[in-house]
Structure formats: C-alpha cells, structure tokens
Amino acid sequence: MPVANCPSCGGPINFSIGSSVVVVCDYCRSVVARTDVALQDLGKVAALVDTGSPLRRDLPGKYHGVGYRIVGRTQMRHEMGGIWDEWYAAFDDGRWGWLAEAMGKYYLTFSTSAAGLPPFDRLALGQNIGGMVVQEIGTATLLSGEGEIPWRVEPGSTYDYADLSGGENRFATIDYSEEKPLLFKGEEIDLRGLGIDIEHEPARKTKIKAERLNCTKCGAALNLVAPDQAERIVCPRCGAMHDVREGDLAYLEVVKLREKPRIPLGSKGKIDGDEFVIAGWMERSVTYDEKYVWYEYLLFNPQKGFHWLIDSDGHWSFAHPVPVGDVEDSGNVDGNPAKTIAYKGKTYKVFADAVATVESVVGEFYWKVSVGEKARAIDYIAPPEAIAKEISGKGKEREIAYTHARYMKVREVEEAFGVKGLPAPRGVGMIQPYEGGSVRGLWTKLVAALFVISIVIAIHGPHREIVSELYDFGSVMAVPPDANAPPSSSKELSRVIFTPSMKIDGGRNLQVKGYSEVNNSWVSVAGDLVEDKTGLQESFDLPIEYYEGYDGGEHWTEGSRSQTVYIPALPEGSYGMRLEAQWPENMPPPRVMIVIKEGVFRWSHFFLALILITVPAIWTGFKSMAFEGQRWAEAGFTQLGTVRE
Amino acid sequence: MGRMLYTLFSIVVIGGYSIIGWRGAGLRPTHRQFVPHGLRSASHGGYRSFWFGGFHGGK
After folding, report:
1. How far is B34 from chain A (nearest CA, A)?
2. Residue contact B51–A462, C-beta within 8 A
3. ipTM metric
4. What is the rounded CA–CA span in Å between residue B18 and residue B12?
C-alpha cells in the first residue's frame, strides 16, 4: 500500500516502509493507521512545535555501517512541560531505530526482546535492571507527529516510561504504552556517530526565534547563550522570569535577587582548554541547624554542553554531568545514601545529604527552573574531586542526575574569566585539597629504599677482619705500680699485652669485640691503638662482667661475657695495640678474645636515617589530619560514613 | 611544596646514609691524641714500653 488517500481529507499518504503502522497526513494532520481491511483514521494531532532540531524527514544516515532514512517523528511532552522529539529511522536491514532528541543529546535505541521487566508501579529510581540503572521515571503525552511511524499513535494519549543508563553511553527505555512493557536498548550518540553530516544540512533553526530578545517586562536586551535549548530565561536587569513556549517568551514572575553574580552573565572563560559562556546563575541553599548558601553558574559550550561553576564560601569547583550508569551507587534514592560510591575506579565518601532549594535565579536555563525548586542533594567526596547526586521530581515523575566536580583555586577562576578580586576562601572547602601533600606513599617507598640499601651494604659493604686473637693475660708480667699514682686500697690485678702491628686501611669504622669466660666476676680491658709513625692514639674500653645465680629457684644472669665498641674511622696506617686488663685478685689472669673488624655495617645508622625521614612524615600526617578534621567538621557524616549526631 | 621539600630532605638523608653506611664511618666525634714523640724515644723499647714510663694515653 505505498500510496493511498487520507480517509479524512483525501490527500495522498504514503506507506513507503512495509512495517510502518501509521502515517500522519501532511495535509490535515490525521493519524492514519492501516488495518487488514482498510485505512483507519485515529484522529488528528496538533501542529508540530518548532524544536529547532537539525534532523528532518528523509534525512539519510549510517549507523555502524548500516544505512537508514528518517521517515517520521512524534513529539512528546514531559510532565514538567518540556517537549522532545522522537524520530523514527527505517534501516536498510529492515530494523526500526528510535532516535530520541532532548536538550541537544541524541539517543538511538532498537526494540529488544526482554522478559522480567518490572511493572511500572514497582519501578524504582536507581533500580538496577539487567546491569542498567533507572535514571528517570515519567509520563509522556503525545502532542504531534509527522510521516511514517512504527507504532500505533493515538493522538493525546499518554504513556509511562523509564529511562535507563548503563554507563559508557549505554541507554535504554522501558515503554509502558502496551500491556506488556517494551524494551528499547541503544546508546547516547552524537550526530557524527549517526552518520549525519550536519554541515550539509540547512542552517539549524533555533527554538527561540532570535538570539537577541528583549525582556517583556523592562525591555532590556536578553543576549542568549544557547537559545535553542533555553526553557527558562530570567532578565538580569529586572528579574522577570520567562517561560519559553514554542519560540516565544511568556512572562511568569519577578525573581528577587538577594545577591548578584560575582562573575557577570555572558562572561567567557576557558577551563581545561574549552571556552564556556556563563548562561545562568542561581543561589541555592540547604538548611541543617542553620542555612548554608552557595552559588552555581551555568556554563555553556556548544560542543561540551552545559557545565557548572560552583562557588561555596569562596571555594570554587568546576562540574559536569556524568551518565548515571557510570556511577557505582548502591544507595536507595529514598533511604540512607551509600557510604561510598565509585566513579571511574575512584571511591568517593558520602559527605552531605540534604534537600537543596533554589533561592534565586538569573539568566537562561535548559530546564524549567523555578524559585523554591527542591532536590535531594547527596555529596560524595574524594578531594579534590566530588560526585553530587541529585534526585528531583515528585511522585512517580522523578529523575537522578550525577555531576562530577573538581576543585578550582580562586586564582584559576580569576584567570579563566578575566576577573579580579574574588573573595578569599573561608575555612576548609568540601573538596579543597591539602596543600601540604600526602607523603604517606612516598614515606613507604623511602623506607623500602632504605631497607634495600641497608641489606646491600650489610652484604656487599667493604668490611674486613683485621684481628681475631685470644690474649692470655696469664702469660705476661704484671704492670709495675705507678710511682705517681695515689695509693690504692683496691685488690685488683693488672697486666698489659702489646700486639704486633696491624694494617688498617682507614676511612672506615672499626668494630672491637671482646669476649672473656668470666663467671660471677669481671675483667676490664682498656685498649689503645697507636699508629707506628705518627703516634696517633685511639683508646677504647671493654668492661666485661657476668654474674648468674638462682633466686627462688629461678636462674638469673646479669651482664655479658662480651662487649663491643665502635671506633670512628682512623687514617690508613700500621697500628700497634696495647691491651691492659684488670680483674679482681680472687680470679686467675683472664683470657680475652679480641676481634677487630673494619667497615662494619651499623643498624644504628639505619635507625637514625629512619627516624630522620619518619619524623617529618609524622608531622605532615598530623597537619593533614587536622586539615581533614576541619573539612569533616562541616559534614553531615563522619569519615566512616555514619550520620553525624 | 611540602612534599617536594620532604623528598629533597629524604634524598639527602638516604644519600648520606648510603655513603656513611658503605664506608662504615662513625658519626661520633673523636678526641684523639698523639703519643709524644719524645716520650716514645725516651722509653726503653719504643712505644711498647712508654706506658710503663708514666703515660697513660688519653684515659
């Protein structure tokens, strides 16, 4: 039935696609369905609203190598008042593609068989269905249409739907227009991905008839930034709020501004290499025990879309929306928030959960913003970044949106927008990074390096044994009494041994270890190393004492049979050693084992170095903890994710 | 800035430690003396006997 006549007006209608269900008559806007027996007039639809879409009927494209042609569209109205287009693409391989266009974004989906989809009344925002998250639940009203449409369009009918996001631009819609829900799966995509070369299309129309309009209240010029996407416009001069209705401005009310934007509307600034224009500004607040206010600038870039610049107590952050499906969030939209969420492999801790209220607005907005508009706002932080989760809407008409933000220094904002004199930040910002920097990871690496170096030195260091001898003080004569020394009453004996000269390489420390088999007694060895030529003398003492016994049946010991001393590096040379031993007279002359090593590794140096690198790390850690303490003092949650009392 | 300073400081500490550790050097200051040459010469038997002549080193 390629060409027929409209049963209403008799005009020609064309079912060019074998699987199209209805055709909207181009002459009388009647929706004509084909049945087994005849054409059926389903009633008239309203005239199409100019949405400024760059798409059109008969526009060809190519998706993943398969050609298609746009053959029809419907226009839907959101309960909040917004209108979007759904285009229908007839593919060369016989498939139908549903191409939804809203707020400059495109979503191409295909009908997919699905089982076990929840009924509409059991659908919940944030619910995970087959690995995708329900990000919006709503009801659409069919307003208008044109061309060939692959489903039975009933003029004025409404149907429930749910939009799902699966991350990595995956997108799906559950359509509740029929008894059994229908699933459409696909992706968010741009015109290039749709194989549409917009450069060869007629100039894109805009929703608003001109980029320069005048306020209906005061007549001031309204220089629009994104005229084809504006839904609400508030005059910066008189505060008159306008609704955008089919290309015209409809005055709503006057919005009183308590504050003025610190960066003027229309200012251009470059952030992360992209130029943005400030389209709108709004003041928002949350109330705990007192009201906290912050300011949000709506930024627009034709390629990047809408972004946000947020000013909270002089702390600035730059934010952009992220797909709901890209965020791993186990929290229930109506219950307690998750303690943590994850985005791109990074974990964010819950920081605040409150109802945010719009206090005042000025400029243009891509949604029908209003003073008093409320949304549940949950902030998750991983300084200097944050994820803000906002849940808006009422009843079944609800939506989740996530925004990723990063901290910006005041100077960075001033340089980006060419402004000066922005107020200094107050207190510690929610995602303000700690300027001292964390050295925990660095400290761990340094300790590991220290340990490895120590092991290398201990194993491969240039240590050498110089002497290892057992000296018997019973084999030498006693020291003659010193004529100049005062008379001594002690009953100690003393003898001296001189060793042969020994070669010392010099420049390295010496370890002198003495050992004697004393038992409940002592021997004190005084040593001197004397360089043969220069007479340089280095002295050391080895006081060895060892006692043991039994007390109450338990064995005890005190002291040690060995003693070790370290001598700082000596110059290279040949050294003789004088050992003078003293011991109590009730003991036979002792034998003392002396071992001298050169270039001995010392753990004391390791611990000294460890302390030197650890003390600043601990100090930095304390400073960082104090900073975090200040940050979390303002939070609605503790760092463990529990609600702050 | 703080992190950079800490990094530099730590490099100096570990570098110094590596040198001292490899050489086995000591950190303690020394109070060394020289045995007087005259005393050594005067003592019969050279330095091996000068202590018997009344010199007791640095002790």
Report:
1. 4
2. no
3. 0.72
4. 10
Are A580 and A552 a contacting pair, CB within 8 Å? no
CB contacts of A449 in chain B (<8 Å) are 14
Q: How much helix, strand and coil, in percent to the nearest 5, is found in chain A?
A: 10, 50, 40
CA dist A453 and A430 (Å) reads: 41
Phi, psi of A164 (to 5 degrees): -120, 145
Low-confidence residues in chain A, pLDDT < 50: 204-206
Residue A55 φ/ψ, nearest 5 degrees: -85, 160
Q: Got the DSSP string for A366-424? A: SS---TT-EEEEEEEEETTEEEEEEEEEETTEEEEEEEEEEEE-HHHHHHHHT---PPP
Q: Tell me the C-alpha distance between A408 and A412, whole Å.
A: 6
Question: Which of A538, A466, A463 is closest to A504 using CA atoms?
Answer: A466
Strand partners, A391: A376, A400
pLDDT attached to residue B12: 95
Flag if B27 and A483 touch (Cβ within 8 Å).
no
Is residue B56 very low, low, confident or very high in pLDDT (cuts 50, 70, 90)?
very low
Q: Is A381 exposed, middle or buried (0-12, 13-18, 19+ CB in 10 A)?
A: buried
Amino acid type, A403: T
What are the pLDDT digits (tens) for A522-560?
999 999 999 988 889 898 999 999 999 999 889 999 999
Test mutation, B5, B9, B13, B52, chain A, max A CBs within 10 A: B13
**Number of residues that make up chain B:** 59
- Give one DSSP letter per residue of A155-195, joined into a string: TT-EEEEEEEEEETTEEEEEE-SSSS-EEEEEEEE-TTTTT
**Per-residue pLDDT tens over the stretch A109-168:** 999 988 889 999 888 888 888 888 898 898 999 989 999 999 988 888 899 999 999 878
- A107: its two tokens: 């979503």
> Angle A603-633/A440-460 helices, nearest 10 degrees?
170
Q: Are A92 and A66 in contact (CB under 8 A)?
A: yes
Closest CA to A140 of A90, A206, A96, A74: A74
Q: Do residue B28 and residue A462 have CB atoms under 8 angstroms apart?
A: no
Instruction: Determine the pLDDT at residue B48.
Output: 46
Distance CA(A625)–CA(A641), nearest Å, equals 17
Please determine, for residue B58, whether its predicted confidence score (pLDDT) is greater than 80: no
- Is this model's pTM higher than 0.90 or not? no
Q: Which of A494, A491, A543 is nearest to A516 (CA)?
A: A543
For A30-86, the pLDDT digits (tens) are 999 988 778 889 999 988 887 767 788 999 999 999 999 999 999 988 876 677 889
Mutant choice from B1, B17, B55 vs A, greatest count of A C-beta within 10 A: B17
Provide the pLDDT confidence category of residue B46 given band limits of 50, 70 and 90: very low
**SS3 call for A644:** coil
Question: How confident is the model over B9-38, as a mean pLDDT?
Answer: 79
- Residue A489: half-sphere exposure toward Cβ, Cα within 13 Å: 0
Residue A118 CA to residue A124 CA, distance in Å, equals 9
Q: In this complex, which of B14, B52, B57 lies closest to A449 when CB atoms are compared?
A: B14
Q: For chain A, give every domain's residue range.
A: 3-200, 212-417, 434-461+601-645, 470-590
Residue A511, amino acid: Q
